[in-house]
Amino acid sequence: MITFNFETLFELKKTTHLEDWVAKIVDNHGFTIGEINYIFCDDAYLHKLNIDFLQHDTLTDVISFDNTIGKLISGDIYISIERVVDNAKDYKFSFDEELHRVMIHGVLHEAAWRGNLFLAILIERFSIDSARRRHTPVTGRRLLATNETLAGCVPLTHGHLGAFHT
Question: What pTM was estimated for this model as a whole?
């Protein structure tokens, strides 16, 4: 089950469509949706979490608290709407495109980080770089295609870290 929670004045549209999209990507990575909670907040809220839990005194766009067990993806994904707005402007994407990228980034923290950190980073970076060069949006379809392209890379393993951010 995917839930959407709001700690700031923000309204998410087409939640059913987004739930299906996230579930498809999770399934394509060989995982199953457990309980994923998206929490949309502002910079101050996420900055406090970053300091309190990760000891990082910086702004960030997403922090994931991973509760995944085996192949059952569960966790809390906090997203700063202010960072999404700024990133969209900086990288010349629409707000929705950047929001979708950050949402999937949070899920990749939960799914792909399980022993495939290097591949997860390559998937996201390659997707973003390709989109910038072509001036086209980063979509779930592009992420899945990129995953297939990069599947032959030698993965680096990484232990369970609990909370992740970029």
Answer: 0.71
